[in-house]
Here is the input.
Amino acid sequence: MTDAIARYFTEDHRRCDRLLAACESTISAAAWDRADEAIAAYRDALVRHFAMEEEVLFPELEQANPGAAGPTGVMRMEHHQMRQLLDGLTEAVRVHDADTCFGDLETLHMISQQHNTKEEGILYPLADRSLQGGGEGLIERLDSI
Ligand SMILES: [Fe+2]
Ligand SMILES: [Fe+2]
Here is the structure.
């Protein structure tokens, strides 16, 4: 059995985590110009990650294993929540509102850690098992996103 899917997506979680940490450090330093750039880089990474899951991984998994539709539905809802938090954070950075930034960052951090733990512990291993070696082909398709 391959763990290609779990490895690929988990590495991308770590990349998003590093970009979120960069947002935190620029905001803590009140370096607003760099915070703008850091948020944009994090947003790009997160939007791409969600697209890889919502447009490719989840539909494939739901097709191979209809029982997965419950958990993927919860994941989509949490993506929506994180997108909204990111919108709030972007606006707070734009107006240099440090308090709102810290609140949004903390919530975003907490939700994304819990979300990623569920995906890494349950959903990705399920995808590696359900897609039976189709993981490599699926990952090739992700490069176009
Ligand atoms: Fe996700
Ligand atoms: Fe993910």
User: Anything to note?
Assistant: Residues 9, 13, 49, 53, 116, 119 surround fe (ii) ion (ligand 2) (CB under 6 Å). The chain has a mean pLDDT of 94. Residues 43 and 86 are 7 Å apart (CA to CA). The radius of gyration is 16 Å.
